[in-house]
Specification:
Four Helix Bundle (Hemerythrin (Met), subunit A), 7 helices, globular, Hemerythrin-like metal-binding protein, metal ion binding, metal-binding, Hemerythrin_metal-bd
Length: 211
């Protein structure tokens, strides 16, 4: 699928990556890589989706998007469906009629869900992103510094990945969002300048993020 662009470099980066992860999941099915590989691919997508939603909610909260409560509800529903697929795949059954579940079923359904979510729900908040919160540059630098430091450390000492499947609940937290950003900076997927411009102005550290 072609990811929807919303004009925020971090969110656009996430949309592109999520699309690639679903393409990878489809390729795993085509190449008959087996159940364990499919499950691992689905967990990678779930982890990325959970972190993306946390980042997105922080940005929308920071710009005062009036549809945030509804948007969070859509996130909960999406994550719930992914979790249902994960559990069904682990058990080797279809969540509805008991027939064997194939990677094609999962990749196709999630691609449809993701595209519809981006096209309808995400496109609705684009106007809100045009109003950048007025945050002093010294505050941005103060917020960015520890993230860059952690990203630098990750380059030499990678940390274990926290899978959404292992999380106690499907409610993205602020720490998940920040961990996602530091890993992306460590891997070169995001530049510190992008985080400073397109995330940190919206982030209110004292407000925990949840669905």
């Amino acid at each position: 699928m072609i990811p929807v662009r919303v004009g925020n470099s971090i969110l656009d980066h996430d949309h592109a990556e999520l699309s690639c992860l679903l393409e990878d999941l489809h390729a795993l099915w085509i190449n008959r890589c087996g159940l364990r590989a499919l499950l691992a691919g689905l967990i990678r997508f779930e982890d990325a989706l959970c972190a993306h939603f946390a980042i997105e909610e922080a940005i929308l909260g920071g710009c005062g998007y009036p549809g945030l409560a509804h948007h969070k509800g859509q996130h909960r529903a999406f994550l719930g469906e992914v979790a249902t697929f994960r559990k069904a795949l682990a058990e080797g059954n279809h969540p509805e009629d008991g027939r064997p579940l194939h990677g094609f079923d999962i990749a196709s359904r999630l691609s449809d869900l993701l595209y519809a979510h981006e096209l309808v729900e995400d496109s609705s908040y684009i106007p809100a992103l045009t109003v950048l919160p007025d945050v002093p540059e010294d505050v941005i630098r103060q917020r960015l510094s520890p993230l860059v430091e952690e990203a630098t450390q990750l380059k030499t000492a990678p940390q274990p990945v926290l899978h959404a499947a292992d999380a106690p609940a499907l409610t993205p937290q602020a720490t998940h969002a920040l961990t996602r950003l530091t890993r992306e900076m460590a891997g070169g997927g995001l530049k510190p300048e992008q985080v400073a411009a397109d995330f940190l102005p919206y982030w209110v550290e004292q407000t925990p993020l949840s669905c």
